[in-house]
Amino acid sequence: MVVSASRDHACCNMDIKELKGGAKDMECKRRVMGLEGKSCRYSRLESTYREMAPKISSNVMDLEELVEYGQYNKICPFYYSRRVKDMMDLLFIPYNYLLDRNLARMYDINCHNAILIFDEGHNVPTCSRECSSFELSTNTLSQALVQLSALK
Ligand code: SF4
Q1: Rounded CA gap, 14 and 72, in Å?
Q2: Could you tell me the pTM of the whole model?
Q3: Closest residue (by CA) to atom 1 of ligand 1?
C-alpha cells in the first residue's frame, strides 16, 4: 500500500517547508531538475523508488509516518508514492485526485478494475462542485468587457 498527497503535505525537504502550493511545486521541480545549481537531497531515480517499494510498503505507514521515513532514509515521499503506485494493491489518495479531471490526468490515476472506497462520502458532492468550479475576479471581467467593447 502507499499513501499519496500533494507536495504541500508529502514533501519532506525542510529547506522549502515555508513555501506552499504553486511556489512549492516550482521550487521542487527546479531542484529535481538541478536548475540554478539547486538540488533536493531526497530526490531519487525512478528505478530507486521502485526498487525500494517492496521494503517500504511492507510497513503500513500513514502520510506523516511516510514523510518521517523519507526524511530519515533520504527518499522523497511525494515522488516515491507517484512512481510506485502501479505496483501497489492499495492506494490512498485525496478525493480530488479522482474527481478533478485535470489532476486525475496529471497523476495518471487508473481506476480500471479498481474498487473505489470513499471515506467520509458525504464530502464527495462538495469536492465535486469545487473541482468543476472556478473563480473570476471582477477585475478580470472588467478587462474582458473593455477588450470586447474594442471589437465593436
Ligand atoms: S523532491 Fe520531494 S522532498 Fe524534494 S523538494 Fe520535491 S517534493 Fe520535496
Answers
A1: 12
A2: 0.84
A3: 43
β-pair partners for 2: 91
With contact defined as beta carbons under 8 Å apart, do 81 and 93 qualify?
no
Between the alpha carbon of residue 78 and those of residues 51, 81, 150, the distances in Å are 16, 6, 47
> Is the CB–ligand 1 distance for residue 81 below 6 Å?
no
Summarize pLDDT for 88-137 with one digit per residue, the tens.
Answer: 999 999 988 889 888 888 888 888 899 999 999 999 999 999 988 888 99
C-alpha cell at 54: 517492496
For residue 43, the ligand 1 atom closest to its alpha carbon is 1
Contact between 39 and 128 under an 8 Å Cβ cutoff? The reply is no
